[in-house]
Amino acid sequence: MKTDIILCGVGGQGILSIATIIGEAAMKENLFIKQAEVHGMSQRGGDVQSNLRISSNPIQSDLIPKGGADVIISMEPMEALRYLPFLSKNGWIITSCTPFVNIPNYPDMEVVKNDLQKLPNVIMLDIEQKAKDAGVPRSANVILLGAAQKALGIEYEKLEDAIRRVFGRKGDAIVEANIKALSIGREAQK
What we know:
By secondary structure, this protein is α/β, with parallel strands linked by helices. It has 7 helices and 6 strands, in the order βαβββαβαβαααα. It has a 6-stranded mixed sheet. Strand 4, helix 2 and strand 5 form a beta-alpha-beta unit. The protein is globular.
């Protein structure tokens, strides 16, 4: 088993929380894991990106080479396009369809969506609206994780268990909100 994942978005969107959940699930399976993060400007709405490599064999590098990512999980559609050179030929993009416009020259959303829809394996969801509709507005990132579950090759129950461990100290309400969000994402991918 080997899965190379790029998680990307804008500071404050929960990218590093997704990475923590995936990492926790992988470690419980006794898989090898390496992670590299870039989040220097996250407090100001800057780019946040994490390389997450999971394997049943030892991993030499924490960085994913161009053309090597099996999955790109993006909280923001333009960020998915930014990391497109890293996606493998048969890789998956799971992304929010809602832009986070934080630059004056943000591209036209129709162009961004059309570029993404040209790719063979793309799931685009309005995770923000799904989260609001379900009463879990702070768990949109975990909806995206639920939608990515099959592409990640991690059993759904393992992700649920990881959510319990990662968010357990925050209380039952936070745990249940995130498990609900994971379920919403899984249903949306069908």
